[in-house]
């Protein structure tokens, strides 16, 4: 009887197991139900549209044509991309006005809010509008893109120079290693060719040829429209019909897109650009990128988790073993419909054998022994946090992210999930990702590793050792891994024994509170319910490099990396990474010329931990000499390579020509860093973080002041800050003689032209928030002038750039103009830059330019009302430098005070007769 019962039990258990597996398989095979918040429609002519209404969000628009370089004939290479350019160069409703300038006057910024792109199988045009007011204008332009481009011969000829400029920029002689990888992955797919075309095909483009491609592929059934944001759905659908229903339908076959065929050659040697890192990259194909079922979404989450675990382990071990790695990455991506997992490590060429061995051995250890409890807990913390606040986080997703998700789904087998289904999959994922399952998945992924090997070398001659390096790494991966000692619990920070004193507390306005602490720190709370469960802090000090003894300037370049690797609060960096991850907190130090601080992102429930971390970082930083030695070694090697690279040679020569006396702006040679001591770095830390420098702590989140007060006493008011007895100012003398440099150091056939205009700041009047707004507006105006003149009128460069650097404190401001050129256009380009500067200096800023820049700035600052990270950063800056903090809350009144007179005063101050220039022409190396 007992035997029968045991047999029956066994059968019952087996049956339950089979039923469980069957149910499990059924769940994984469950098809995703499309998100009902998306509304879809098709006009009678075949054009499709997709709408997603989202309150209080900008309106994102994408007009998509399902044709790109793959639809070009052999004689049309580059035509799809050239045609995309021509959408901005004259159309039915924009024949007499520049599209860029038109939308800029509405407050949009070229590039950020208005742009277009071409790829292998699609071309798309995108607009970001602050609201729905100008949607009908956007549709008018999109309709012009559809069938109203004029393609005038003179416009085509004028744009040819800009397209060639983009070719020079995107396809340099020295391609970065990831661009080389992309090219190799396409090697066995004959339908692929360079999206930009060839130099010869670009030069041979004609209006008739463009029109032939245009009329063949731009037809209603081959296009789609995506609109996401705050709009009325009924109104939008009516506007879509009004603008596009009359577009004539064509009975033409749709594009036949050939899928990517991955190359049979799995080993490829690459050559890193001069001065760049060598690298070992393992790229593992994971199959077609798709998210059609619950199982697909589950696997997508799992791959992301495994990559984060691999990267964290490799980074921790790199520091622990003082491995000479420059960077470590583990991530997955989608490449032309294929999902790829990438493991990469960078290094200086002299450390190749050591780093490749380290990489392989650590992957073998992960494969054979997996991760520990603490590692998994840290990696899962963000998933659990997202699950806890899932509905809130889903609601907080902005219109840009939602738009990009739909865009991806149009070209991948992917169904966009509803919030409920996404949460259901995430719940199951978090519940099932225990240590056993994760380590089994890691083992499977790393055991099945049959990757593409991409190995980047410092020079072409070394590529012959590819087979040898691949064999070495493969053999090391095949060996058994080593077991590591694993931590069992997540470390915690101790609580300070003594509490501090709060001197005063006051309410500044309806959403802002201020505290004055006994140690001199001023604290501000900005209530921001819109950021939901997120919280942000900024610890800001009016110190920066200017408050250091000049002898410590080189040490300041190494300080943050050394202190990070040294750990604090009795914990090494690996333990600190885990405790921060487990508490959903990210802390990032920053250092500029005249201020420094810490930016902290956390969550509502984790604010006590974040404040505790702030306390320990500001009180317990200690330099580990072993870590300093390693940081110095890597820094010296990196700087030495930089000094021999073309870019490094140019910057060094310009710096030597500019600085006559003083060390504040000096680019230090690599040999300088060998002499830095632990005491030097400790002094940097003490000077920047343990002395009084008008310190402010700004907090943003959905908090009440009574939530904050006890935390301030426990963690902030008791931070000991020594009195700053001496406010230092940098001593520097710059060369006031204008100079012309010709530097034949480039590895490219093109020429780069650099004009640096330096301006001594002579006014003694303190800057105000209005001045800050004016400087931003002036920068926008100068860039728009440069675009109109250097690209538009003269067609010299694809992306002429003007950078204006006007520091909050300091003695000098700088205006930098840079262009990449065809060598034959060098003289013309110099004349054009002179014309640009002369026009601004002599003609001044117009009212129309002022109004355009004012609208752009207002649109750019509008999202700050919901962006806690930007709010605390700006408030910290404004408080330190004496600008009105009200300008962060409501910038419009301050923008309104910027007049053309003020802008023209700033032109005289920053670009006037007192300016002196360095012109540097970077030429190809002499052959």
TrEMBL record:
PROSITE patterns tied to this protein: INSULINASE, PROKAR_LIPOPROTEIN
Keyword terms, alphabetized: Hydrolase, Metal-binding, Metalloprotease, Protease, Zinc
A family per Pfam: Peptidase_M16_C
Keyword Coiled coil carried by entry: no
Domain Peptidase M16 N-terminal, first and last residues per copy: 56-167
Cofactors demanded by this protein: Zn(2+)
Name of the featured protein: Peptidase M16
Organism for this UniProt entry: Photobacterium sanguinicancri
């Amino acid at each position: 009887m007992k035997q029968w019962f045991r047999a029956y039990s066994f059968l019952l258990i087996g049956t339950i197991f089979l039923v469980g597996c069957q149910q499990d398989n059924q769940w994984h095979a469950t098809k995703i139900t499309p998100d009902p918040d998306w509304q879809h429609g098709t006009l009678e002519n075949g054009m499709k549209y997709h709408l997603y209404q989202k309150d209080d969000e900008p309106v994102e628009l994408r007009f998509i044509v399902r044709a790109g370089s793959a639809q070009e004939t052999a004689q049309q290479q580059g035509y799809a991309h050239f045609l995309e350019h021509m959408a901005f160069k004259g159309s039915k409703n924009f024949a007499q006005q520049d599209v860029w300038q038109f939308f800029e006057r509405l407050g949009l910024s070229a590039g950020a809010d208005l742009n277009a792109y071409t790829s292998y199988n699609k071309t798309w045009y995108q607009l970001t509008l602050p609201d729905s007011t100008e949607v009908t204008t956007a549709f008018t332009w999109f309709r012009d893109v559809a069938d109203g481009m004029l393609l005038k011969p003179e416009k085509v000829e004028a744009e040819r120079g800009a397209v060639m400029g983009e070719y020079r920029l995107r396809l340099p002689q020295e391609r970065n290693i990831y661009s080389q990888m992309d090219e190799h992955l396409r090697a066995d797919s004959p339908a692929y060719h360079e999206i930009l075309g060839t130099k010869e095909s670009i030069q041979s483009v004609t209006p008739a040829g463009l029109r032939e491609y245009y009329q063949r592929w731009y037809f209603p059934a081959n296009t789609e429209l995506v609109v996401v944001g705050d709009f009325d759905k009924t109104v939008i659908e009516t506007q879509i019909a009004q603008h596009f229903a009359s577009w004539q339908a064509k009975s033409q076959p749709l594009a036949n897109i050939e899928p990517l065929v991955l190359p049979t050659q799995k080993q490829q040697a690459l050559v890193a650009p001069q001065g760049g890192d060598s690298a070992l990259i393992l790229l593992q194909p994971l199959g077609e990128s798709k998210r059609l079922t619950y199982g697909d979404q589950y696997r997508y989450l799992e791959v992301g988790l495994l990559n984060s675990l691999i990267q964290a382990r490799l980074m921790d071990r790199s520091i622990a073993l003082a491995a000479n790695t420059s960077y470590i990455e583990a991530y997955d991506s989608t490449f032309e419909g294929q999902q790829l997992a990438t493991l990469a490590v960078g290094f200086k060429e002299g450390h190749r054998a050591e780093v490749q061995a380290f990489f392989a051995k650590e992957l073998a250890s992960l494969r054979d022994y997996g991760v520990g409890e603490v590692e998994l807990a840290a990696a899962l913390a963000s998933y659990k946090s997202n699950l806890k606040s899932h509905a809130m986080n889903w609601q907080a997703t902005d219109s840009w992210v939602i738009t990009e998700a739909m865009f991806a789904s149009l070209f991948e087998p992917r169904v966009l999930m509803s919030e409920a289904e996404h949460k259901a999959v995430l719940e199951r994922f978090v519940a099932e990702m225990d240590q056993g399952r994760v380590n089994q998945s890691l083992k499977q992924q790393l055991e099945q590793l049959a990757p593409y090997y991409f190995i980047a070398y410092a020079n072409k001659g070394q590529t012959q050792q590819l087979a040898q390096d691949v064999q070495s790494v493969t053999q090391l991966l095949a060996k058994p891994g080593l077991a590591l000692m694993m931590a069992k619990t997540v470390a915690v920070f101790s609580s300070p024994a003594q509490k501090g004193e709060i001197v005063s507390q006051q309410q500044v306005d309806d959403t802002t509170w201020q505290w004055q602490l006994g140690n001199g720190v001023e604290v501000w709370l900005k209530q921001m319910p819109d950021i939901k469960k997120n919280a942000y802090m900024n610890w800001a000090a009016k110190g920066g490099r200017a408050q250091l003894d000049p002898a410590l300037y080189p040490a300041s370049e190494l300080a943050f990396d050394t202190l990070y690797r040294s750990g604090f609060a009795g914990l090494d960096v690996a333990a600190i990474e885990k405790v921060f991850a487990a508490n959903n907190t990210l802390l990032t130090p920053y250092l500029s010329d005249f201020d420094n601080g810490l930016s902290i992102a956390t969550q509502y429930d984790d604010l006590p931990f974040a404040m505790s971390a702030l306390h320990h970082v500001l009180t317990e930083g200690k330099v580990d000499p072993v870590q300093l030695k390693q940081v110095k070694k890597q820094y010296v090697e990196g700087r030495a390579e930089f000094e021999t690279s073309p870019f490094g040679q140019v910057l060094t020569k310009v710096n030597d020509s500019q600085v006559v006396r003083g060390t504040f702006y000096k680019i230090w040679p690599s040999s300088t860093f060998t002499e830095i001591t632990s005491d030097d770095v400790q002094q940097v830390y003490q000077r920047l973080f343990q002395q009084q420098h008008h310190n402010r702590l700004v907090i943003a989140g959905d908090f009440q002041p009574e939530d904050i007060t006890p935390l301030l006493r426990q963690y902030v008011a008791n931070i000991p800050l020594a009195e700053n007895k001496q406010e230092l100012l940098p001593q520097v003398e710059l060369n006031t003689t204008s100079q012309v440099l010709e530097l034949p150091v480039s590895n490219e056939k093109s020429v780069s032209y650099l004009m640096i205009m330096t301006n001594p700041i002579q006014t003694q009047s303190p800057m105000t928030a209005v001045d800050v707004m004016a400087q931003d507006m002036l920068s926008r105006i100068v860039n728009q002038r440069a675009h109109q003149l250097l690209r538009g009128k003269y067609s010299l460069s694809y992306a002429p750039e003007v950078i204006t650097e006007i520091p909050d404190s300091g003695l000098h401001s700088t205006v930098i103009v840079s262009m990449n050129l065809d060598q034959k256009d060098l003289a013309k380009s110099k004349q054009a830059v002179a014309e640009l500067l002369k026009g601004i200096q002599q003609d001044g800023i117009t009212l129309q330019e002022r109004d355009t820049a004012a609208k752009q700035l207002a649109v750019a600052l509008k999202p700050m009302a919901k962006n806690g990270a930007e709010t605390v950063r700006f408030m910290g800056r404004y408080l330190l430098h004496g600008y009105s903090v009200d300008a962060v809350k409501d910038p419009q009144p301050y923008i309104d005070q910027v007049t053309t007179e003020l802008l023209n005063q700033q032109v005289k101050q920053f670009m006037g007769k007192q300016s002196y220039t360095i012109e540097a022409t970077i030429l190809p190396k002499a052959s």
